[in-house]
Write a structure and sequence with these properties.
about 525 residues, alpha+beta, 12-stranded mixed sheet, 19 strands
Length: about 525
């Protein structure tokens, strides 16, 4: 698997996202590829392949992957001959000008052309945005209307009226374009028939493990909806598995884009399994691991799908208090009301290490007096209970199920014996960002300042939620300021890793000063000084 250090982060991210379709193939890591495409797609294919054939005459008949853009019959024939038995084919179809009649457009026409060339198992996807313009955020199976309906129903909610109007019009346009066979490009995956027993891919493992979800049941037909969003090459992909035209996915499969993503995948599997063992079974709102194993040299994590709509979609001023209290109660239940543990048991692991990392990473942008004040404030922490921290408890990872229950996704960063209130502080801060429009305006510091003032709309709700949580867990009120500071120190670690990856080295001082968590840390100190 390609490592994250093979290129600068910006180049690697762009290269790999151009070929995220490879995770729709049986083997996303081809040994030998042949590419009939432009230079950029060819470079991307080269980044994931052990070998790339430049001339068809040199291909032989042992390629594992053929890539084509708007192929004619001759190109399809050449690709077919270059592939080994069972080899995969990926094609993009952009040029509709020659296809004048509606019956000669769309996925059915692409399927007919590929099948006429001898390919089987043809599946057509529509990526958005188009790969030749930007990095796609998702790949929709064009002949799976239930998957399309599920996706459109869970699109993010926009706060501005014009954006909501535009998003609504876009959804109508997408549906109409699909019905009229006008969506472009169409990206198709297929394979050359294999007379022998083919090497099993990750999807074969999914089929074999299906009885874990539904005993004595094997799906007749599987559709995949690939979610490929994120801002870095190390972001994992999520493949939602739909079976037999059912309206909701039955399994979520997480796949690492680069080798550096594998440890995070392993941590999530370990954390989820540990939570299940600790709580003697499934925990409401927490996914359950179905399997975690290597499939065709690819580590794959399959989890149960807990359906719902993200709070990033649902959150608005009218339901802000209701949603905030609902998640507060869920975090209280997750904490399970543990007893306080001696400070010496957790200080170095949870607090001192965060202080050291913050000073080391952001020291060039920090005032030494403020760092000294931070250490004094944190030093006031005494014995505290240890709880399970999810450590990415944000509105995009928190769903509300159809029955109104809380669901929390993405447990790779979890700290199983962490400190209380940190998840709640992080969640309430980001929920306010969504509700007051800071996610669009980028006025994060002003938004956070409002949450610290009980006289404001968001501040009143935040104070109510924190008061409920602290009373339920028996926490003294004076530990709130140091825990708020600690929250931003801990989360600054991931932000520093992103800044370092963007800079392909040490971030400059300007980038450090513009760090969101440095700004929240600064605002917290200012609030304490004003108080």
């Amino acid at each position: 698997m390609l490592g994250a250090n093979a290129h600068t982060e910006a180049m690697l991210n762009r290269l790999l996202r151009r070929v995220d379709w490879r995770f729709l193939l049986p083997d996303p890591q081809p040994a030998k590829s042949i590419c009939f495409a432009d230079s950029w797609l060819a470079q991307s294919v080269a980044a994931i392949s052990q070998q790339v054939v430049e001339l068809p005459a040199q291909a032989g008949n042992d390629c594992t992957l053929a890539v084509m853009v708007d192929p004619d019959e001759a190109t399809l024939h050449t690709a077919w001959n270059a592939l080994e038995s069972g080899g995969a084919c990926y094609s993009e179809w952009n040029e509709w000008n020659e296809w004048r009649h509606p019956s000669s457009r769309g996925p059915r026409s692409v399927r007919r052309r590929l099948e006429a060339a001898g390919f089987v198992d043809v599946t057509c996807y529509w990526p958005w945005p188009s790969p030749d313009r930007s990095s796609p955020l998702f790949w929709l199976p064009m002949e799976a209307p239930k998957a399309l309906d599920y996706f459109l129903a869970n699109r993010p909610h926009a706060h501005s009226q014009w954006r909501r109007t535009w998003n609504g019009a876009l959804r109508v346009l997408w549906r109409a374009a699909l019905s009229a066979r006008l969506l472009s490009p169409i990206c198709a995956v297929a394979r050359k028939p294999d007379a022998s027993a083919a090497s099993p891919g990750w999807l074969d493992t999914v089929r074999s493990q299906w009885p874990v979800i539904e005993p004595d049941s094997i799906p007749k037909h599987i559709d995949l909806l690939l979610l490929s969003g994120g801002n870095s090459s190390s972001n994992k992909l999520v493949c939602l598995v739909f079976v037999d035209a059912q309206p909701i996915p039955k399994m979520a499969v997480k796949l690492p884009r680069v080798s550096d993503s594998v440890p995070a995948l392993e941590r999530e599997a370990v954390n989820l399994q540990a939570i299940q063992l600790t709580r003697a079974g499934a925990v409401p709102g927490v996914p359950r691991v179905i399997f975690f194993r290597d499939c065709a040299r690819l580590p794959v994590l399959a989890e149960t799908v807990l359906t719902g709509r993200p709070l990033s979609v649902l959150a608005r001023r009218g339901n802000y208090r209701e949603m905030a209290l609902k998640v507060t109660d869920w975090l209280v239940d997750l904490a399970n009301r543990p007893k306080a543990r001696p400070r010496a048991e957790w200080w170095d692991r949870l607090v001192e290490s965060a202080l050291i990392d913050f000073e080391r990473c952001f020291g060039a942008a920090l005032d030494s007096d403020r760092l000294h004040d931070t250490r004094i404030i944190l030093d006031a922490l005494g014995d505290l209970p240890l709880v399970c921290e999810q450590r990415d408890c944000s509105p995009w990872n928190v769903l509300i199920s159809p029955t109104g229950d809380v669901v929390v996704l993405d447990w790779e960063s979890a700290e199983l014996r962490g400190l209380p209130a940190l998840d709640l502080i992080y969640f309430l801060t980001y929920l306010a960002f969504f509700v007051d429009g800071a996610m669009e305006s980028k006025r994060f510091r002003e938004s956070y300042r409002a949450t610290l003032d009980p006289a404001t709309f968001t501040g009143h709700v935040v104070a109510e939620c924190l008061d409920r949580y602290f009373k339920q867990l028996g926490l003294p009120a004076d530990v709130l300021p140091p825990l708020r500071l600690l929250t931003w120190l801990i989360h600054s670690r991931s932000e520093y890793r992103r800044l370092a990856a963007d800079a392909a080295g040490l971030p400059n001082t300007e980038a450090l000063c513009n760090s969101l968590f440095v700004k929240l840390w600064t605002e917290e100190l200012h609030h304490r000084a004003r108080a």
